[in-house]
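Summary for the funding panel

The consortium committed to producing paired sequence-structure records for every protein in the target list. Below we show the first two records in order, beginning with the earlier of the two.
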Amino acid sequence: MSIKIQDLVHSYVRISQHCPITISIEEGSALAICGANGAGKTTMLKLLLGEVMPKKGQVEIPMAFAYLGVKNGLKPGLLIREQLPFFLVTEQKFPWPHFFNLKFEDLSSGQQRLLALWITVFSQKPLILLDEPFSHLDARGREHACLWINQQIGFGKIIIFTAHDDQDLKEITALQVLNLNDI
């Protein structure tokens, strides 16, 4: 299976006004949507999710997906152990057992992001969409995130993520880059 974006134009994705976006993403690969603030990275993800419609063109996503937005999606006041059953359908061993009896709000912003990223990446969905997955992560957290993403690519999943920083791209395998910065 693959994802196809054909002649996509949207007013918030500035570059698409000059050059409609056409791209195909195959199983076992990743797409990084890069650009400055306001370039349309999150809008591209919303187009893929079907939350907004393109001005022109079409998007074909014939598969189930997991999505991590800018917000982490866990309840701040609940214990981690109370929330995990709602998300996890993975055989992957939970890497932070010492988090089980902590509230999500008691974790640092980096720990919160890493936990939310882990839950999303290790979902059983064939497509993973991540909006700025590396935000709030230190070097070690980025290393873990890249390792997990590469593992999932190796298992044949498609990973699509947004990024500002080229540092976030260097460790990802089978990567295509869609640069949304103005021409």
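The next record, for a separate protein in the list, is shown here:
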Amino acid sequence: MIIGKEKYWENVRKEKQGNNLFLIYLDEKCLKSDQGNNIKLPAQLADEVVREWNADGKIDTIKKSFFTKFCFAVIDMTQKERENVVSRLVAYGNCDPICYIADEPKKLHIKQKKLYDPLIDWAQKFLSIKLKKGPDLLFIEQPPGNSGSIKKSLEELDDFHLSTLHELTKSLGSLFTSLALYNQIITPEIAWEVANVEDNFRIEIWGEVEEETLIKNVNFDHFNQLVKILKMI
């Protein structure tokens, strides 16, 4: 575990281990997580962490950098935390927004059906589930067997893939959209469009609100960082 608050090293490097994973070294000291675990990462993700630890700044600040913070959290994930992540993702699947299609206005209804229906069809086949659709004003109770099928699929993922999917789902608000992106069924551009179809429609009608646009831009940058991780693991 790193002791102290000030940057004390001169060189940061990655060193290859087995299974194409890399340790990170600060001079001759191996970088460890907050819980004292070695940071073992795929090559490209290791490069990003090396870049962050090469930056100037205090250790606490570097630890809050995007890739370092993500990797530390995954490396230190406990079994209980993993179970909680799976449960949260299953909960997303039981009230996924792509199952809710507005009746009115008609233009929004058409946009949503065009984007949502192919994802619903794919998710049903991929997860062997049945999804009910309905208007956006009423809660839709999905078939009880869905939860078990979704959980089984998620439990097959390792901690890095599960955590990335979880973060993508929080960013997009939709488990099924995130799964489609994760499995390269849709592009990041389409995934973002699906997640923002209602906001984009509102902007078409009423125009942009500066504060909302700033928040959306920050969220978009965060989403793109997650897409980078998805390509690295």
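Regarding this second record: The chain has eleven helices and four strands. The two ends are 24 Å apart (CA to CA).
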